[in-house]
Design brief:
Number of strands: 0
Largest sheet: none
Structural class: mainly alpha
Distance between the termini: 122 Å
Strand content: under 5%
Helix content: over 70%
Number of helices: 1
Shape: rod-shaped
């Protein structure tokens, strides 16, 4: 009788240990998924900011090109008036 009782306790302990392990692994998986989601959100934000900055750089380059052309035109006019 004691042997059966002890084996039931051992099986119960093993079952509880397995349940605890599964619970811990599930918790770790949930945390890992949350970290992955956060990392993905941060990457999306970084790419969005990068794209906005690249667009602004393009606009600034266009403005610089227009100003350079205007300066060149004004310089040509001044050079023409000087002669």
């Amino acid at each position: 009788m004691r042997k059966v009782w002890r084996s039931d306790r051992v099986e119960g302990a093993q079952s509880q240990a397995e349940i605890d392990i599964i619970a811990r692994l599930s918790e770790q998986l949930d945390k890992a998924n949350a970290r992955a989601d956060l990392a993905e959100q941060r990457a999306d934000t970084a790419y969005k900011e990068r794209n906005e900055l690249l667009r602004e750089i393009g606009e600034l380059k266009g403005t610089i090109a227009a100003l350079t052309a205007e300066v060149r035109l004004l310089k040509e006019r001044l050079d023409g008036q000087a002669t």
